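thread from #wetlab-drylab

HS: before we spend reagent money on co-crystallization trials with pyridoxal-5'-phosphate, can we at least see a predicted complex? here's what I'd submit
DV: go for it
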Amino acid sequence: MSQSTHRPTTALPSPADAPKGVVIKTPIPGPKAKKIVAADGRFLMTSTKTAPVVVESAAGVWVNDVDGNRLLDFTSGVGVVNTGHCHPDIVAAVRDQAGRLMHYAGTDYYYENQVRLAEKLGTIVPGAFAKKVFFTNSGTESVEAALKIARWNRQRPITIGLLGAFHGRSMGSLTMTASKPAQRARFQPYAGGGHHIPPPYCYRCPYKLEFPSCDLYCAKILKELYFETSIPPDDVAAFIAEPVMGEGGYVVPPKGWFGALKTILDEHGILLIDDEVQAGFGRTGKWFGIEHHGVTPDIVATAKALGSGLPIGAMIFRKELDYTYQGAHSNTFGGNLVAVASALATLDVIEREKLLENSRVRGEQLIARLRELQKKHEVIGDVRGLGLMVATEFVKGPSDKAPDALLRDRVVEESYKRGLVLLPCGKSSIRYIPPLVIRPEEVDEGVEILDTAITAARRRG
Ligand SMILES: Cc1ncc(COP(=O)(O)O)c(C=O)c1O
């Protein structure tokens, strides 16, 4: 069960063949894009649109819009195509599977490739113990599955998370999401049992302390204050956290925070749920973001990059947490065969093309270039990240850390107009998350466009 079935069928485009450089033929949005954006407004529910970019095709780090413009993608389609758009081997695996069998309900019957993928996930997820897997269709569904198995297993009603965290928008995951009021407003009551503590956010320490003299108060407060007052620890099933807080602003917890937290959790048999939906599959330069923090989670929630664009997620957990009878949890589409074929090919490509290493090395290049920009533009208050999970936080000025969301939004706009697609996060940050296949010259091109975009945004006053 250790071999994947797909064979690489198409040679990777060599750097010489790869599309090169932004091409701007019309203003963005162009005439065709404008029409589609207007129709979208008529027919689709209001959701989370960021920019009027209408993509028609894509390869590697480049996306082509409907008006013939070629843009540089520093979003990976919102953290999904870590292997680059339409990687030929992944496309071949998907086509091959779609022609043979697309669906027969893997939760009720059996699929060989689901077993293969589960076995592979068990080996790359941290923890030298036996693991099991439940396949889902999205990040929020993986988080729901994690919250449910923790609650069922521990028979305790409470889950604790972090203020600023994002875990999804269905009712269970929304209970633990605490990133923006818009996500939570008018949806009370949530699933119940959710508590939050302030985040380990050194740039804006909630306690106005400094690392390391703070002695990780932001972890220890759980035991010293919350467990002594409002949260009975023996009623807590799990603590859920992202290894790098994503939507909340790419906040990287300080060294030792996860370790201090885990010590407290272990004293009370509280499970650690690691939400890797955004950080997983090489984004931080390791398979999983938690590997930077030296702790072993009990449950890991994944999705986004696992399928390189096909919807698939997985909840990987300590084998002994498994349900002891059928029917407590299941679904219809989880681990759909075409998505599983894409996931197997994705993991293969990450290994074969050494994308963890590229994420690390290109991430260092990107952070170094952004730190140069920070010297020129004092409105960049902070540059932070791990691997190619990088962000800058925009502030009103060097001594004034007041978040400047308006400037941030203008930088995003000036960037896509010049052919660089970016995604905001947090109150006033921009994340830079290109596909992990990015080349040095493409990192440079992105930073150069960003530089001119910041200058243009600042001129607008
Ligand atoms: C850390 C994290 N968890 C969960 C989710 C929810 O994933 P989905 O949008 O696939 O439901 C996201 C989405 O951005 C995320 O970043």
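DV: The radius of gyration is 22 Å.
HS: ok that's useful, forwarding to the group
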